[in-house]
């Protein structure tokens, strides 16, 4: 039933894409803010707020699913399909990527920068963050690199992360609880981190810590899939040699793994110099663009390699097409694998 729900959700999204539903997410943001404020009034600690919201949301989703399952198996499949349709979504970010790709192919750099600004603004609206987002400063190459980084990170946040936890919870018959758990955890963590505007407090420290473990397995599964359907040798080499250096420069574990493996799989160089975070109010995407390239490399590492991601060619318009292809091959690979596992279970 889980496989049917996954296939149904992806097909439904292709027909009726939720390309943007910021108002829905704003209502979720308002509800989370209300609960967080109420708990903070009672001096609740970050871990109490984080787990109260995620566990209550997951339990409610799982409980409704169990009720539907008792009523009708068909009703339960429809429920899972709708939950996946709302919480997972290729089109939640791909329409921005498509606009950038089409604009650059047509030689319209201004339209591509406008699309990137809109993409970053929508993410900012969800978290309430106001930062120094200036896509107008970017060259075409930097624009393509930033778009590819955002697409790789979004593939974890909006597809592979939620799908992984949906499948894990499906083992005990609570698939909807898993994907809701991941979506709420990701939302809260990103909101806390971006709200802090580059500062480290108890909330951001706990958010980084929790998402490190929540994303640990999903991001590695996604990296392996990208390697299998792309340039396997380069993907594994970049992951093995560059991810640790990025973590040492302050990049999150999930970002370090998916960006290095994704760049290797695409045979491109996403970053070719030192990337060190400064003290300005920037989010993780801006750090990738406006880091201090003059800073010395840690531990005597060559400055040209310390913040490098990928070892291939500089991205161009064709690279954006390749990125679309590698994502769809990854999805096809995952779906075929799930079909094989489902058939083996039925036969066995």
Can you describe this structure?
This protein has one domain (2-317, 331-347). It is globular, with a radius of gyration of 20 Å. It has helices at residues 2-15, 22-41, 46-71, 73-87, 91-105, 109-127, 140-170, 175-195, 202-214, 216-229, 232-248, 253-266, 284-290, 303-306, 317-347. α5 (91-105) runs antiparallel to α6 (109-127). The protein has 348 residues and is mostly helical. It starts with a helix and ends with a helix.
Quick take:
With 348 residues, this protein is mainly alpha-helical. The protein has helices spanning 2-15, 22-41, 46-71, 73-87, 91-105, 109-127, 140-170, 175-195, 202-214, 216-229, 232-248, 253-266, 284-290, 303-306, 317-347.
What form results from the Cα inertia axes? globular
Cα(first) to Cα(last) distance is 17 Å
Major sheet attributes: none
Spans of 5+ residues with little confidence (pLDDT < 50)?
274-305
SSE ordering: HHHHHHHHHHHHHHH
What is the arithmetic mean of pLDDT? 81
Count of individual beta strands: 0
Strand content: under 5%
Proportion of residues in helical segments: over 70%
**Count of alpha and pi helical runs:** 15
Instruction: Decide which structural class fits the backbone.
Output: mainly alpha
Radius of gyration, taken over Cα atoms and rounded to an integer in Å: 20 Å
